[in-house]
Specification:
The complex is a heterodimer of chains A (370) and B (564). Chain A is α+β, with helices and mostly antiparallel strands and 370 residues long. Chain A has nine helices and 21 strands. Chain A has a six-stranded mixed sheet with strand order 7-8-9-3-10-11, sandwiched between helices. Chain A has a five-stranded antiparallel sheet with strand order 2-1-4-5-6, with helices on one face. A five-stranded antiparallel sheet of chain A has the order 14-13-12-15-21, with no helix packed on it. Chain B is mainly alpha-helical and 564 residues long. Chain B has a single domain, classed as MetI-like (MetI-like fold). In chain B, helix 2 packs across helix 20, helix 9 packs antiparallel against helix 10 and helix 19 packs across helix 21. The longest helix of chain B has 34 residues. The radius of gyration of chain B is 25 Å and the shape is globular. The chains are: A alpha+beta (370), B mainly alpha (564).
């Protein structure tokens, strides 16, 4: 549905040139909900705005539904108003001089297929129904709450029956409670309509909840693209692992094992076995990573591989779990323990930490950021 | 809408070239002519004579010192009135603040020369009404106050620059984060200490910036020093330039005027440079976002009366007395000292003859000047501001600076440049209303672009992008979304510029001919011949200005809801 290849974009700033996009390629299938996830300044909004036609890349190609809409090399540029898209802006961009009905209706007045007044009224009614704003047609846009403005923005986009729906951090201006409510509603509405969606956010939990597919971006490149489960369970790089959820890292060196699977890694805490499927030759400097919830804590030394002694530094009660901060030979480890085990086994200061080999990720050390 | 460089590459460049031509043309003309002698349009060698003559004469240094004294005297007066007024209107629960602000904004548009004329009637050393009254009351031999002095000029000038200064300082007060003061209070500091240790240091850059700005404005103005200084031969730089171009005896010396004009422009540009530097520091202290902004108003309590007294203390000399004086003067063929007995001599003759005084040509010229100038300035400003704010045009900073440059060139110098330009190239606009329109348009371009800049910044870019993305054609985005949003403030700016052009007298005098008389120059030339008639015209002008402005504000307040 959307095919992006090799998008490059540079910005001229006071400090010189900044490469906002360094070769972005991405495919989004019809009906797919794709999330672009990354920290601010990673280029995700620029990518979105290039697809909308609000900005132009320096090179690369953008195809929407078999039409090349932008290709600087071939001198093709279709302006935004002719791309047949819908977009939700971060500020919602509700026109303040119009009421709710007019905000949804205005773009419909300029459709290629000329709509009659009656058709427009029906389309607006349908859209407002969908976002549950029926009855507020004549409300001034300036008199709406943040959540309502968000709904108007959605209705406006839906009413256009767009080929693709672009969303630029749509929930970042809402408070936490409303945000959770709206994100599941957006997900429901778009899947009911079968919309193709590209959704930009910096919030990883949001990305995991709404996305069919998530692409993690950093520094103008896409690091990894996959289902939320894939990204969380099999991060391909340290950046992705760090960005999605928390992870403990231990530096070491591979001293034995096969090329992939069953790696033996030597670290300051001793030797560990990792079942990671990455290809790493023996002798290579590596980083081991494990998520806090994959760490097992025992009061007594268990009969298992990958066990190391540690002392509890600090405990944080979270309600449904306990975060335990541990220290082992000067290395900090955070573990997330289920409630019951935390209260019984962890009363003493010294515990044993078991790192399950199947949960122990392996990264090449060269990837470790300074 | 954002202009796409690949597609609309030529528009910004075109705007830049037009602006540069308009702005730099006159400025370079002055510079060029300052190295020449004789009359424009005649051959002359290039020479440094003008500069040697100016810098080598004692008279010039005397005039320079006078100008400095005027500048300093003016800002002292402004400081005295504007700072307390701004504080009262920005930070306290002073009653009817909006009314006072409107009064002050009307005062900005009332021509300064009318106030100066009125003060002559009040304080000239022979017949000034206050002087005469004081002499009879106290049995004095000589008039106690002489308005024809540098102190007098500085005071009157300071009074009329106070309203714009109040608006400038109020916006600085409003930009200050109140929580900075609140945190001081919470941690145990008292009002006086907070004022000295927190508020004042934070406000200091903004105050210094305002004073620098009005110092430059003061040394650039012409009308008040001309009215109050020339009778006693007290010159400042602007009046010296005027004198060189329209001497009582001999030929006009445009070369000498140009060289002095160039020196003055360099001086005022320097002043504005420091103004911008200070402003940058002031902006570092300002709150960036409007989020959660609220003012904590200081409760005045019984001090309200002191505040009220201060407002009266300002408005009496700045507005009420001059206006009443004009009204009084308009009633008598020969000016009478105010008394009930004199009232029996009063007549409304001057008002019944007002159509003769401001004849159809004068009215037509004035209307042309106001309407065309305002329309040109606003159209150019929209183009310029659009390029500056909404495009990635490479030279947009240069464009913005070019549009502001006329601000740094005194009106006298600007008019001089236009005269030389038109005479040299024998342009047919010389002596017509169009040369005035031209001059006013360039002069107010700086103001226009500042105003449109801030309007466009306030309209979130995504509002137009939302239109574009959902398939609304570009022109329709402009018509259906942008114009409704910025329209009211464009009308506001248009009105303001029309009124500024109405009150403008400096360029109108410098470029005066019998064919381009406007109301301001008409009042000016009537003053000596028929004071009552000039006063009547002035009174009507003030009333019309105030009425138009009040009703316009009413109308715009209802429509200005989107911006801000």
């Amino acid at each position: 549905m959307i095919r992006i290849t090799g998008l490059v974009k540079e910005y001229q700033t006071g400090q010189g040139e900044i490469q906002a996009l360094r070769g972005i390629s991405l495919n989004i299938e019809r009906g797919e909900f794709c999330v672009l996830l990354g920290p601010s300044g990673c280029g995700k909004t620029t990518t979105l705005r290039c697809i909308a036609g609000l900005e132009q890349p320096d090179s690369g190609e953008i195809v929407i539904e078999d039409t090349v809409v932008n290709s600087p090399q071939r001198n093709i540029y279709v302006p935004p108003e002719e791309r047949g898209i819908g977009m939700i802006f971060q500020s919602y961009a509700i026109w303040p001089h119009l009421d709710v009905f007019q905000n949804v209706a205005l773009p419909l007045e300029y459709r290629k297929e000329k709509l009659s007044r009656l058709q427009i009224r029906d389309r607006v009614g349908e859209a407002l129904d969908l976002v549950r704003l029926k009855g507020l047609e004549r409300r001034r846009a300036t008199d709406l709450s943040g959540g309502q403005q968000q709904r108007v923005a959605l209705a406006r986009a839906f009413a256009c029956k767009p080929k693709v729906l672009l969303m630029d951090e749509p929930l970042s201006n809402l408070d936490a409670k409303l945000r959770e409510e709206m994100r599941s509603e957006i997900k429901q509405m778009t899947s009911a309509l079968g919309s193709t969606v590209l959704y930009v956010t910096h919030d990883q939990s949001e990305a995991l909840v709404v996305g069919d597919v998530v692409a993690v971006m950093q520094g103008g490149v896409i690091l990894q693209r996959g289902s939320p489960q894939d990204l969380y369970n099999r991060p391909e790089s340290l950046e992705v692992a760090e960005f999605l959820g928390e992870m403990n890292f231990i530096q070491g060196r591979k001293v034995g094992g096969e090329l992939r699977g069953r790696h033996l890694v030597e670290t300051r805490l001793g030797n560990f076995i990792s079942d990671s499927t990455r290809e790493v030759p023996v002798g290579e400097a590596v980083v081991l990573g494990i998520r806090p919830e994959d760490i097992q804590l025992c009061g007594e030394k268990p009969q298992a591989n990958n066990t190391v002694a540690a002392s509890i530094v600090h405990r944080q009660f979270l309600g449904n779990a306990t975060m335990v901060e541990l220290n082992s030979s000067g290395i900090k480890i955070s573990a997330r323990a289920a409630l019951r085990s935390a209260s019984t086994d962890l009363s003493s200061g010294a515990v044993f930490v078991v790192l399950d080999p199947s949960c122990l990720h392996l990264f090449r050390s060269a990837e470790l950021k300074e | 809408m954002s202009i796409d460089l690949r597609r609309d590459g030529r528009t910004p460049l075109f705007v830049l070239l037009v602006t540069l031509a308009l702005v730099l043309g006159p400025i370079l003309t002055t510079l060029w002519f300052s190295f020449r002698t004789g009359l424009p349009g005649f051959p002359s060698p290039y020479t440094l004579k003008n500069y040697f003559d100016a810098l080598g004469s004692w008279k010039f240094y005397g005039v320079f010192l006078n100008t400095l004294e005027l500048g300093i005297g003016t800002i002292i007066t402004v400081l005295l009135f504007a700072v307390p007024l701004s504080w009262l209107l920005a930070r306290t629960d002073f009653p009817a603040k909006n009314l006072w602000l409107t009064v002050l904004s009307v005062e900005i548009i009332i021509p300064g020369f009318l106030k100066a004329f009125a003060w002559i009637l009040l304080l000239n050393p022979r017949t000034g009404m206050i002087n005469v009254a004081l002499m009879t009351l106290l049995g004095l031999e000589r008039a106690p106050i002489n308005i024809y002095t540098l102190t007098g000029i500085s005071f009157i000038q300071g009074l009329s620059l106070t309203p714009p200064a109040v608006f400038m300082i109020i916006s600085a007060f409003r930009a200050m984060d109140i929580s900075l003061e609140e945190s001081a209070r919470v941690h145990g500091m008292r009002y006086g200490a907070i004022a000295r240790r927190i508020t004042l240091p934070l406000m200091m850059p903004a105050l210094v910036a305002a004073l620098l700005y009005y110092f430059v404005t003061a040394i650039e103005t012409f009308e008040i020093p001309a009215i109050l200084g020339l009778p006693s031969r007290i010159f400042v730089v602007t009046t010296l330039i005027f004198e060189s171009t329209q001497p009582d005896v001999g030929l006009p010396n445009y070369g000498s005027a140009s060289s002095v004009g160039v020196l003055l422009s360099v001086f005022s540009t320097l002043g504005l440079y420091f103004y911008f530097r200070t402003l940058r520091r002031a902006n570092q202290y300002a709150v960036i976002t409007g989020k959660g902004y609220r003012t904590r108003e200081i409760t005045l309590g019984k001090w309200k009366w002191a505040g009220m007294a201060f407002v009266v203390f300002y408005l009496l000399p700045a507005l009420v007395l001059p206006f009443l004086t004009l009204v009084w003067a308009s009633l008598f063929r020969y000016l009478q000292a105010p008394s009930l007995a004199a009232l029996s001599l009063a007549s409304l003759d001057a008002y019944t003859k007002i159509w003769d005084a401001a004849g159809p040509d004068v009215l037509k010229n004035t209307a042309l000047l106001m309407v065309i100038t305002a329309t040109l300035v606003m159209s150019l400003s929209v183009l310029i501001s659009w390029v500056v704010i909404r495009t990635g045009f490479r030279w947009k900073k240069a464009l913005d600076a070019a549009a502001f440059l006329p601000h740094a060139v005194p009106s006298v110098v600007f008019a001089l440049a236009l005269a030389i330009f038109a005479l040299t190239f024998k342009l047919p606009i010389y002596g017509t209303i169009f040369i005035l329109i031209f001059g006013n348009t360039i002069k107010y371009l700086g103001w226009g672009t500042r105003s449109v800049n801030s309007t466009i910044i306030q309209i979130h870019k995504e509002l137009e992008e939302a239109g574009q993305v959902h398939g609304i054609p570009r022109l329709q985005v402009l018509r259906r979304i942008i114009l409704p949003l910025i329209g009211p403030s464009l009308i506001n700016g248009w009105m303001w510029i029309a009124l500024l052009a109405l009150r403008e007298v400096t360029m109108a005098l410098m470029l005066y001919s019998t064919r381009n008389v406007v109301i301001s120059t008409q009042i000016w030339s009537l003053w000596r011949a028929d004071t009552a008639q000039a006063a009547a015209l002035g009174v009507v002008l003030v009333i019309v200005i105030a009425a138009v402005w009040f009703s316009a504000r009413k109308f715009l307040e209802r429509h200005l809801v989107y911006s801000s």
